[in-house]
Amino acid sequence: MQLALTWDLMVIIFFVVIMSYSYIVGQNGTIKIILSSYIAMLAANGLGNLLIKYIHISQPLIKVFDSTADSNSVVFKIFTFIVFTLILVLKGGFVIDMGRQNSFIVRLMSVTIFGFLSAGLIMSTVLVIIAGTSVDGLMGGTLHEVVNIPTQTLFVRSLIDYYNFWFAAPAIAFVVMSVMNSAIEATPQELPPQYPQYPQ
Length: 200
Prior knowledge:
By secondary structure, the chain is mostly helical. The protein has helices at residues 7-54, 70-91, 104-131, 154-161, 163-186.
């Protein structure tokens, strides 16, 4: 049996790896990955655009993509996005604490949802960088493709074509989770029964 390494298969493997890692780091760690990804993608997009505007390189630095000098920006953006995400996740000076008020089942479902959204955000960002030039979630019109990604790769195309969904969904989920946790914390807790005190 021969297994061809297609675009879909390769992306699904990375998608599952990222989602599996969420179960290792837990809910708070997964949310930190999402927030770090947002910061990293904005930094990668800005620095990549500066590279195009002010540094003119006629030949591709790394011959990975069969394209013009745009490939320099693509490689640089992907490298910056991955490096910045790793630095912020491992050494970032912020801590996420969503609390442990919920049951184990609820926290497991939360990790699954955030892990899925985290994997979708990261993979769609990388694919949009490869397919085009904008990764700020405010894309308009059609992407001009630096790399010719086959149209039959349904999973890959869904990550690219619905990138705005993958960009917004983790933030929406985080807001909903924050509101729910705030509501739980605001609910008055039942006090233990008070027993009468008798003099000794």
